[in-house]
Amino acid sequence: MTDTPLVSIGVPVYNGEKYLPETLDCLLKQTFGEFELIISDNASTDRTGEICTDYASRDRRIKYHRQASNIGAGPNHNCVVHLSTGPLFKMAAHDDLYAPTYLERCVQVLEQDPGVILAHSDGTLIDSEGQPYPFDPAGQSFVDKRSGQRFPREPIEVAESASSNERFHEVLHKLIWCTDMYGVMRRDLMNRTSLFKSYYGSDKVFLAEMALLGRFYHVRETLFMKRYHSEMSASMTASEREEFMDTQAPKAFPYLELFKGYSMAALTKGSLGLTERARCLASVAQKTVVARYWRSNEEI
Buried-most residue among 7, 53, 134, 138 (CB within 10 A)? Predict the structure, then answer.
């Protein structure tokens, strides 16, 4: 590996002892090996630190950083970006898994097409034990046979258009899990965004900003495995999410912050004409109406 690797992989983690070793193993076994792996441990209280130190002692590509205190998920995600050195960057959750060729296929896309700024792949949903949920093609959803709960499939055609405002609209209205944030990205363009803020949902604002800067591309192969389990942020209450995102930030109204983020992106990001920016703002307005309807029914 050269002094400056092509890819930086950032792994922000807090109390991840249950899933972290499996995730690190699959990342270290990638067929594309020219990367650094930066772990930012958010002052974990379990065996996370011990696990990270052990892995770092065995693989020189790993750089382990531990926060002195819990700074929250938002700042900890930003930390791995700021510590990275490669021109390409990939965020990796401590509990997700990847096929061995994931990095190779995504890097290949970015090297072949300079107009693509984010490369990801099709994916599947796995449970806490790493077993895939059955997929129902008719309903385009994964099914938990034990509970009957259905999980919608993340669409893979999002933000591939040549039109900036179409890409922006698709991120706002089509993305469900925001798994594109775990794709391989051009770091110089990431640095032109607001990165990750201290409110839940800022990952979608980040992706909306990225969509205004260039095209996404999704490899039509199932190379990404998102793990769904009871400890993930999607299962938290609203107050738990606030604490999870940033322990030091003043309490905010997450929906207000979310739509402020979308609006600022529509007004300031990318090289758009007035008509395109107006269309982006119309997408934000449409999203606001839909969200208010959803909130009134779910009392959120």
Answer: 7
Tell which residue, 124, 75, 98, has the closest CA to residue 7: 98
Strand 215-227 with 184-186, pairing? unpaired
**CA-to-CA distance for 58 and 62, rounded, in angstroms?**
9
Q: Is 225 inside a domain boundary? A: yes
Average pLDDT of the chain is: 90
Phi, psi of 297 (to 5 degrees): -85, -30
For 256, which DSSP code? Answer: H
CATH code at position 133: 3.90.550.10
The 10s digit of each residue's pLDDT in 83-102 is: 999 999 999 999 999 999 99
In a domain, 1, yes or no: no
- Of 211, 151, 150, give the one whose Cα is nearest residue 180: 211
Q: Which domain holds residue 244?
A: 7-298
pLDDT at 248: 58
Q: Report pLDDT for 84.
A: 97
Residue partners of 108: CB distance under 8 A and separation at least 6: none
Half-sphere exposure of 79 (CA within 13 A, CB side): 22
Looking at residue 286, what is its pLDDT?
92
| Per-residue pLDDT tens over the stretch 34-76 | 999 999 999 999 999 999 999 999 999 999 999 999 998 999 9
Q: Is residue 2 part of a domain?
A: no
Provide the 10 A C-beta neighbour count for residue 102. 29
Report the domain count for the chain. 1
State how far the Cα of 87 lies from the Cα of 217, in Å rounded to an integer. 18
Structure confidence by residue, pLDDT tens digits, 190-210: 999 999 988 888 999 999 999
Three-state secondary-structure class, residue 262: helix
* Model confidence, pTM: 0.90
Question: Could you give phi then psi for residue 55, rounded to 5 degrees?
Answer: -65, -40
- Torsion, Cα 266 271 275 280, to 10 degrees, reads -20
